[in-house]
Specification:
Number of helices: 26
Strand order of the largest sheet: 23-25-21-19-27-22-24
Strand content: 15-25%
Structural class: alpha+beta
Oligomer: single chain
CATH class of the largest domain: Alpha Beta
CATH superfamily of the largest domain: Ribonuclease H-like superfamily/Ribonuclease H
Number of domains: 8
Radius of gyration: 41 Å
Distance between the termini: 73 Å
Amino acid sequence: MNFSRKSSCSTHYQHRYVPPYERLLRRNQLWKPKKVKQEHDLQEECRTGKLTPFQQPENYKCYFIHKQTDISIIDELIDEAKSTKHFSIDTENDALTHKPATLQVEFIRQTLSSIIIIIEVQYLPSVITPLFKKIQQLCTIIFTLNNHIYSWGSALHELKTLNSFNLFKTNIKIREHNIQDECSGDQQAALQKIIKYEFNEYLNKTATLAEWACGIDLVLGTYLPLDVVGPERTYRLKEEKKYRSILKEYAINDVFAVTKLSYKLNRIKLLPIHDYEDISEDEDNTNLQQELSIDIPSTYDELIVHVTDELEEINEKETSYQQQEDIEPTRPINNEYYESRYNESLYDIKDHTHRRKETMANNVQDSAMMICYRECLSNLEKFNGGEEQKILQFINNIERIGRMINANDDILDCMCTAKLDGEVKRWYEDNMTLTKWENLKPALLERFTTSDSTSKIFEQLKERKQKSDETITSYYDAVIKLCREYDSSMSQKMMISWLGNGIKDSLKTQIKRQMKLLPESARTIQAFLKIAKDEQELQEEDSSELQTTQSYLPYITNTVSTIAQQTRNNSERIPTSTYSPSRHTTYKQYAPSFKPLDSLKPQQKNYSSTSRPSPILHKREPHYSSINNSSRRQDANIKPYSPTQHDSQRRPCDVCQRINHRTIDCYYKKPYGSGTRDGGYSSSKENPSTTNYTPPTSSTPIHIKVKVNNKQHQAIVDTGSAVTIINQQLLKKIYHKEFIYKKKLHKSANCSSINIIGEIQLEIKIQGYKTFILADVATNLITDLLLGNDWITTNNVIIDTPQRCIFLTDQKRHILTAAQFVRPSHLQLPVLLADEITLPPHSEKCINIKVLSSMTNISEALFEPVAYLYPKQIFLTNALIKLEDNRSQIMIMNANDRQKTFSKNTPLGYISYQSKVNNYLILPLLSGKRTDRSIITRTNLYRRNHSFADRSWVPSANPKRKVRSLDSTCRMDNNDEQQPQCYVCQETIWMF
């Protein structure tokens, strides 16, 4: 009978759940009513004080043995069994199936606490697994003629019922002691009655008719109800755990009662410790031990003490020999023959002593290696074929641990199979012909090496760059690991190339120069690491010296150049927009440089109509006002920058503020002028733009991971929003405090209205750092959470786009925490299986799917399947699907030779959809009579780009209209001869 994953609550009563203990009491009442009455009488005597409950020993250890038991525990029990000579046993049968369910064994020890093992025979592992062989070895050691077995009844009779489980030989011979015969003779009295008369204690026997095959150990998980939730599930879990606790106590008390009576009858006569024989010398299990076990000492300390004692004895003997040698010359020797024989004997003794010292030292070293081997093997994680695990790394770990003890191929095979789990274990059980390591290793590599792993590693290697706050050692280790995973035999030259590819730009030139000075044979990855460390230390020293020489400047300098002053003066004469959100900046390590007014470029001088702050402007802080006033008073004394100054190499770039290149060579320099990468500044004098530079390609909002009232979610950090807003749908899913109803109306950037229904206090947690904000609650917000300028300003947020992260700082600009940019989750939503399905072999089926999204207005989306289904030969196609209430259908194919079952809510893939925010393009309306191609000048392009970037409206000569962005190749129907043109770039589209 298969009891796997079968809870004892499953059963006979389909309409109403009956707790298992209540079922047990009913069964006792129906089957043995007289026994129930006797039990009640004994319980009443116990309540009145005439009897005391059965007393267990104060200290004991209990272990369950089944298919989930760790093999290292079995090894420890084998060691304990070898040093134990007395055992008490008992068995239990399932009341419903009448089949054996458990075997309880107590290790009776003289000075140490007892050990109880409960072998659940209905849940043993497969007989071909290493774990079962270890359990078999343990039972063989226990049940031998050298040991004394105590039981209530015939021990041989009870063990014969377990022959079908192959735990020991069928013709087993043991030295048994039937305590029942010695206590009651032919009357065959019950154990409960004898315990009462001998010790005046009450031994509870209520669970005699229990369902012992239910799986007593909670690790088996048979107590878990699979089809209920809520309070009913909690109630059932409580009852099932209580029932198994009662069964455990019953099983332990039975063997303790036998041991207690054995002591009472003086049947247990423990020998002195030095009289115990090593059970490994027994003929019955010598072969089994040589085949499966490695004898590892139990404790390293005892071994050291033992070896030290022997070495001290050897030293004493050697000292006595030395004393005899010193005294011997004074003794008159008349016979030269005896003298030479004496000297030879003395030499042999010294040589033997020396060899014995070396042997003992080697034994200590070997035993220490055994301890390390055992620790490493137990800490090695089991391989289940998951995406994060790699079969090559697992095999390398197995061979590395095996080298500690010079393990042969048989031991490596045993180690490997013992550490297989999940899908890999099932695969191994289906391929039991792989009995040798030389066959198993390539088979594992071939089966569980994913086809796309190499390409993934190569992509990671290409994209791996050293971060700004990452140390050289950390970067070096990461790249070398990727190189060896991609190609274990990769040359040193190629590794150096990969290391140099992703290292910081400020170190590349210096490291390359130093490496070229070395001879070809000395250009190793170790030399690269040493040179990189030295160069990094030199740069850190230079930066610290620079900060020391500029100590008069504030930490966040607010000094501005004459260009900035001129720009500020110009901007005073221009009307500012009604709303201009401020942005934050990152602190700079270097002081800003100054230029004379005549050094301005022509295009920079003509910006009087659309003023831009200088890229080196910083946000003013109130508590720096005194410093700012003093710095402004010193502006007149600051001299223009001179090229003859010695710090020309340290002058930062005007675009990105780095010092390893000139401004004109900056990668982020715009095509027209050297403006920053922000894409636009506020025209307000009071709140100039202070956001760090933004690459031209980053047009999507900034998404970060946060915890909103302790719920993980994504949020948009929007410098263009004055307030923080949360979607009402998200608020319903999180725990929140009192809601404040307050009607408001916000205008978005596209002039649409955002309906605000109230306010709520939110806790925004980033990497464990808590922030608080009063947020507006919207009913029609396109996203779930929008962190606006109120949150940004309150927490001194610095947005560092090149590093793709934001920093939260204190008033002194010390970084409190940081958060990396993440990919927007609302543009790629997970797709789950709506119902449980079973796919026959070599078949395809149309299945129902659902999309996890708070938005219900998605009509069309692009479906992409997950990658982990392909190795399992389950195929889904990329498809454009229609959605109704976030549900749709898609075709799935099973290419396996056997059927596959998928449970409900199995992840199948993702959908991508087009956000409404980017669903329209503003395009010029072309005249129908116009047939010539428009000439777009550089000024118009620049004006258009910067007007959009500034978020300010600039009048245009052409009227504009909205068209769907799904088709940008619009045709002109008024002229059949003229080829159609694109509305955006006016390029002719040739139709064939």
